[in-house]
Every structure is written in structure tokens, then in C-alpha cells.
Amino acid sequence: MADPTTGTVVGLVSADLDVTGALWECLAGIPAGLLVSANGRLWVLAPDDGSGAPGVAERGLGGAGPLCRTATGVVAANPWQVWTFVDAAAGSAGGTGGRDILLVPQAAATVGSIGVCDIAADDEGALMVVGRFDCLARLDRRHSFRPVWMPPWVTGFGHGDLDAVGGTSNLGGVALAPDGRVVVSAAGRSPEPNGWREGVVGGGVVVSSSGDVLATDLTLPRQVRADGDGYLVVESGTGRLLRLGTDGAVDVVIEVPAVLTGLDLQGRIAVVGWMAPGDGQAGLPVADGPASRAPARWQGTGVAVVDIVDGTLVASARFLGKVDPVVDAVLVGGGRRVDVLAPRGDAANRTVVVGAVERLPDGGTVPATIGTAG
Amino acid sequence: MSLSTMQSSSVPLPPGTASAGDGGEAPADDLELLASPGMAGWLVDNQVSLVFGTPPMKLWLVGVDGTGELAVFDRSLDKVMGIAAEGAERLWVATRFELWRFENVLGPGERTADGHDRLYVPRQMLPVGDVNVHDVGIDATGRDLWVNTRFGCLASTSESVSFVPRWWPPFLDGPRQGDRCHLNGLAMRDGRAAFVTCVSRSTEVDGWRDGRRDQGCVLDVATGEVVVTGLSMPHSPRWHRDDLWVANAGTGELGRVDVDGGRFEPVAFAPGFLRGLSLVGDRFAVVGSSKPRRGDIYSGLPLDDVLEERGLVPHLGIFVIDLERGEPVEWLLIEGPVRELFDVCALTGARRPAAIGLVTDEIRREITFDATWPVVAPLAGAGRG
User: Fold this and answer.
1) Which helix H or strand E contains A82, and what residues bound it?
2) Where does B8-365 sit in CATH, by number?
3) N or C: less crowded end of chain A, CB within 10 Å?
């Protein structure tokens, strides 16, 4: 394993990125690109930027939010929209600048400031954790969202205060298991507005939508992901990545001296967002303990790459300077040359992907086959 | 009739605000609306309100307030092009690079605190790229169908690509990048694409520019045949109560097309480059008017000659045409540093519509959902859960 304490600094537009450890080798080996939602932007870390060398690009997203890999691309939220990106390179005969994966903005749903904390995806589309209204929800054609589940201890749709955070129980993550199980994390089980704050240390749970309790006594559990028969969950308030076994066992995969948020998996590699505790995290175990003694490389915010089998830190990418915390990270597998077009940016506006002809119902005069260009 | 004889009531836009009385979100660009004295009454009598856009940045919604005065509401959108209403609940708006779907979040009889009876929220934005969307239609299944002028085809959005081609004129060899014939207008009939307009039948990129004076035509989508030709930059074909109407923009004429006879029958003239058309009831048409400028693509047309002969100047705005009298009877003109208007849509049954804009934080705070949903239940039916 490369030494994750020495690195190279990549200078970017709005911040510099200090890359340590075997980040690029790890990504190249999957192969995958790493997307990080931080500082109001989407950061694209590709082991091959097209020249054969690693590269980092930053793309405007109108604000940071959770990310989710889908069958055709990525879903990314900002503070009021949910964007769908589709891989234009999939099935393409060219025109994507030599990229293996080129995520282009395909649609944006306006959801408003509902506090989307995490997103999972299945055949029905995005399944969102709606923090301010204490529910899981789908996108809706007419409304901001369509609630589909609420924890049994919650008695209403939060308190509707858009300036508050977390609703009553601060739902933090959702996982869709291959068997169809839906698993959710919550910081507390209070029915009262902001009630989760009172029992934040040790009051968190991971539950299934059918009522099973998978873990208790957690501190600010956030993203949860299916991993084999069990689950991985970020315990934000302790800086731990936990594995929840089918037998009820809770094991620590890795512990870092920082508040964690954001999680994705590809095989044995996990990416986890982290940040040094701020004033708002005072009183959390990680803030009062490990983070208070953390070396300089854990100051600020960044992404950690973890081998979940060995429980080791493979690499880290840390933002230098004053940068808003990482919100989420996702591995986009299937290639090394990965890029994203910023929504409403010049490149996206100039990129036109022409689909196959779909005839009008009455057929019209369209010939059977065509050649398209552009 | 000369516009110089018209009497107008001015609806000035106060400096630093964006609309007349109803609020808005961006500086008003020194725009001033001049309405005919009977405009508000006409909207009330016909139970409609109007939505239209003036590039580069404005979407306008015009209705009537509680006192019977004109209520003007504007929002910032980048180069509004085609507009289509899908019943009372939905509004589609094409912009420079996108297709927007607005949803009315008010229920029947519901009003906002400000008295608006429709509140359109931009619920979905579909990037289609720089394809120069013109007219927009919605088919019987609710699917969008629009004129992709740059590629010379009718197109629809898709979940995986910028657009899918649906139809193109038979004289073109397929949807290809490069505007050849300037396909621009789409008439829907019973939920199907029925007629299109194009400025010429050129097959060369930009070749349509040479045909602006008199090579415009209307095509039947089902057969691909030319219905009428010899028009000057025809736009906005609309099927309404068994008639096909077209704005022959380059002559400033609104007319009916004799589909069987292959003739364009002018019904009314208005001083401007006419495009954007919505028929209201049996008697009225609402048509948009742009101001040609020497040297642009809207100049050098027969309209220039007509305006000069009659001593008229072109206007930017909306004319209400009395189809029986064959002349404008009401109008809403826009004065200021804008010259174009592409489409206008009459919102049937709406008295005072509003829309949520994208500039201020109202887009974040306008949150609606169905709170009657049974909230404590297993997640059966939601995905695989």
C-alpha cells in the first residue's frame, strides 16, 4: 500500500486538492472515476484525464448534495434540484472525446429545499431520504416529492421549517438491498421537531422499512449501503465505518479522526467523505476524542478510500483552503477516462446526443433507416 | 387601421421591479407595457389569460386582478420559444437549450395569498442542447413533440439522449445538424402532429434564407405533401375548429389555409412580423408580433413594403384579432430594448396566473406534496421494498 500521508497537490479553480496514497492506482484498478460533491460543486477525479495521466476537474452543480450511481449514470442533488446524468459514451460510436464514461445532464427535477440527505436508485428511479419531512420519497410529476415511507415513530411530515435541519429524527441514509429490502438510518427516534438532537450521542438507529431494527446506539448514522448479506453504515459522529452483519453484529471497518459523511462501494473499495469537526459538531465523540488529536492531514475536508476487507486506508484526497465540507462521493465504474458535463454549462449546451428514430403513431413519411450526425 | 390612432393605457414597470403590480424577480430591462383600454375586459369576457416570451430573458403571464385591472407577471427564462398548455395543469416552455415543464400546483378553486388562480412551478427541466427548439406540442399520450429547427425534424425528449427524431420533411434526407429549410411551426390536431411550416424547401444548410420572401410552405405531416406554398416565412400553424390557421409572418398577415384548395386566405393584417398564435373561441385569435430591423432575417420581406405604404411602424407585442372583422381589436405592446416574440398561448379558464421563477429563493421554498398519503406503512410497492 502506498503511504497515504505524502501526496501531490493538484491546483484547481476554486480549491487545491492534496492527493495522498494510492488513489490513482486504486481507481485505475477498479477501474473507476471518483465523483465528489463538495463546495457546491462536483469534482471529477479520473485516473486518466485523456492524456494517460490522472486528472481532476470541477463542475458546477448549483450546490452540493448527495450522489447515487444508477444503471445508466448518476443522480446528483443540489439544494433544490435532483439532476439525472446519463453516460453518453455507453453505446456511442464516438464523439465523447475519447472518454470511457461521459456523464451528461439529462433532466433536472425541482424538489425545493426539502433536505435530500441520501439517494438510492432502482427501476422506479430515485428513492430519496427527505430529511426535512422525515420520509423516503420518490420524484413526483406534479409535486416536489411523493412520500412513500415514514418511520413508525414519526407522526407527521416534520415541522416544515425550511430553516431547520433534520426534521424530527434526522434521517440520514437509505440502502436498497438486492433482495428488495429498504434500510434507513436515523439519528434518533423522536416524534418532536429537532428531537433527534437531544439523544444524538448513541440515539441513532438503522432500521428496515418493514420494521426490523438492525442497529441501535449509534451516533449520527448517515449513509448506509448494502454489502453482501449485510450493510455498511457511516457513523458520522464517531468517525467510524461500520459493518452490520445479518446476525446483529456490528463491527468497525475503520475509524478515522474526522466526521464522516458520504459512502459508496465498488467491490472491496469504499469511498467515504470526511471533515474536521466544526462548531456544530462539538460534543460528538469524534470531535472530543480522535479529531482533537488528529494530525494536520485530517484538517479541512476530503475523501478517504478504504479497503473494507483489510480495514485499511488506501488513499485520501483532501481539499486545501476554505472549502465547504464533502457531502457525498460515488465511484463511477467501467472506465478510467471519466468526465462529467456541468449542467447548463457551455459544454453541455453544445453536446447533442441524437437518439434512434421513434416514428410518429401515423408513421408519416419517415424512411425506414437514416443516418444522423452532429 | 393605423396604430397611431389607437388609444392605449400604459402599464409602466417601476424601476427596480420586474412587473406591473404582481412582482417578479429581475430588473425590468426598461420595458413598458402598453395595453389597449379593452384588453383586460377582453381577457375577462373570454375567460383566458396569456403567456408569452420575449427573448432574451422574459416569460410573461398576463391576466386580470381582483379589480379588473390588467395583472402582469414576468419571470426570467433564457430565450423563450415555443409554449404549449396541457390542460389547466401543465405548461411546456422551450428555451434556448432546454424544455421546461411547469406544473400548476393549485387545486380547483384554490388561490394563492396574492390572488393567483394558477401557480406554475418549473417542475422539470430537460436539456436538449443547442438545437433551436421552435414550436412545442403535446401529443394525445402527453408526450412532448417539438420542432427541432437545427436538425430539421420533429423531435421528442427521451430519458437517455438529447432528443429522438420523430418525423422530418420528405425533401430532407434525414435529421442532420444544420438548418436547411427552417422548419419552425407545428399544428397539433386531436393529439397528433398534423401540419408543419418551413421557410423553404432548401436542402442546403442555410439555404432557407434565400427563400424568405416567397418560398415558405405548409406541409401535411401524415402525407408529407405540400399543402400551400408561396408564403413568406410562415410560422405558428394551428388547427382550430376544423380550420388550419397560419401566421404569414413576412407579410404581417394572419390567415386561414384552404387545405383542399392549396390556398392561403389572409384574414387580418397587423403591423409586425407575426408569429405566435393561439385561437380563442369562434371569433378571436391572439397573435404575437415582432419588430423587424434593417439587416436582420425579418427584414427585406413584403412586410417592409406594406408598412412603408401604410405609414406604419412595426410593434412588439400581442394583437387580439377579431376574425369576423378581420382586424386587431385589442393589443398589448412592449416598448423597450427587445424586438422579438416567438409564441403566445392562451390559458383557458385562468384569470390571474403566476409562475415560480428561478432567480430568487422562492424556487427552493415552494414545496408541495400530498400530505394525505398514509405515512406509516411498510415500503411495499416502492421499488423492490
Assistant:
1) strand A81-87
2) 2.120.10.30
3) N
